[in-house]
Structure to design on (351 residues):
């Protein structure tokens, strides 16, 4: 395979050969260039794309940090399988294949929906919900290893299905408290990381911030140790997301992150292996307070900013669609030579 520097030069030459002023597609050209580096191919290919929504219950919900009861997680997984969730409406409309991963939802396994299922169900349950990290470690070290291994297997699943692009979504009551705790343990300020989640009021927000701050102080995780943070303050779905991201290395697949919870799992993967940034995209900037701060720290610029905070991979699906449009431009636009248009050698500098 050609080196990254050679791919970059070839891709820039390809983009500059197309019937447009040099650099005139702006960020779209940057996305196409990054995908060329990921795939090692000029121009990069377009094909099937898949969304993996990682679902799990979070024991920290027992501390009253969310408006919704925990059974909503299970109900929403069922809704997603049946095709009634936000990600079904947005993802299916944009051509994404959707998989729901039961990483740690409380209760027995979900019944087989048969031919009527609108989303593929992946049965990967590690625990019956993570434990309440305010009172005990969320997971054992062995559970984290198992969850991350499952995530790596799902990265292989994405490759086997021929996806050129994947998006990551999440689902689980208490998830923003878990995300905030992990990122606070990694060195971010709690006042920046703890936000309203499911539209809690000021009193609940203060309580949530206190719970997160005290739990982080109790476990004293090294801020650069992603696996330790996942063990003490994480959850099975977050560990599985981190393992999925790490497992995508060298598979030639771009990965689009959703909002704050997914980005917190991505940050744990980044602590373990900073090279993941080579194939990560930030699908959107959510309305959650800490999201932009974390993305900036990882040097990931969000593709869109729509004030969304639904989760489920909805923002990633929209951002990923723009990546696809960037690649289609690079693939389908005529060159100056093939179109018989003059001026290809008189474009001036990029700006």
């Amino acid at each position: 395979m050609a080196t990254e520097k050679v791919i970059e030069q070839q891709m820039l030459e390809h983009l500059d050969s197309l019937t447009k002023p040099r650099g005139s597609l702006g960020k779209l050209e940057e996305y196409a260039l990054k995908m060329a580096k990921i795939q090692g191919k000029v121009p990069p290919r377009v094909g099937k794309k898949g969304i993996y929504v990682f679902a799990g219950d979070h024991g920290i919900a027992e501390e009253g940090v969310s408006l919704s009861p925990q059974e909503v997680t299970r109900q929403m997984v069922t809704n997603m399988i049946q095709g009634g969730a936000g990600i079904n409406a947005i993802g299916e409309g944009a051509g994404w294949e959707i998989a729901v991963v039961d990483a740690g939802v409380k209760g027995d396994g979900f019944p087989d929906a048969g031919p009527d299922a609108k989303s593929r169900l992946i049965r990967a349950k590690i625990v019956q919900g993570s434990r309440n990290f305010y009172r005990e470690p969320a997971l054992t070290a062995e559970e984290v290893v198992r969850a991350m291994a499952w995530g790596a297997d799902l990265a292989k699943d994405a490759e086997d299905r021929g996806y050129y692009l994947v998006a990551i979504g999440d689902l689980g009551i208490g998830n923003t408290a878990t995300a905030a705790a992990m990122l606070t343990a990694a060195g971010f300020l709690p006042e920046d990381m703890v936000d309203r989640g499911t539209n809690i009021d000021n009193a609940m927000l203060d309580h949530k911030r206190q719970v997160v701050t005290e739990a982080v102080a109790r476990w004293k995780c090294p801020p650069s140790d992603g696996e330790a943070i996942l063990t003490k303050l994480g959850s099975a779905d977050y560990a599985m997301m981190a393992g999925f991201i790490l497992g995508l290395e060298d598979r030639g697949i771009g990965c689009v992150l959703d909002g704050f919870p997914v980005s917190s799992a991505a940050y744990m993967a980044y602590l373990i292996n900073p090279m993941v940034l080579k194939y990560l995209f930030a699908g959107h900037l959510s309305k959650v307070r800490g999201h932009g701060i974390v993305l900036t720290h990882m040097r990931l610029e969000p593709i869109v900013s729509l004030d969304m905070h639904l989760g489920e991979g909805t923002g990633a699906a929209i951002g990923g669609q723009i990546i696809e449009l960037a690649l289609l431009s690079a693939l389908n636009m005529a060159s100056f030579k093939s179109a018989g248009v003059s001026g290809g050698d008189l474009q001036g500098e990029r700006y």
User: Anything to note?
Assistant: Residues 286 and 308 are 5 Å apart (CA to CA). The first strand starts at residue 48 and ends at 56.
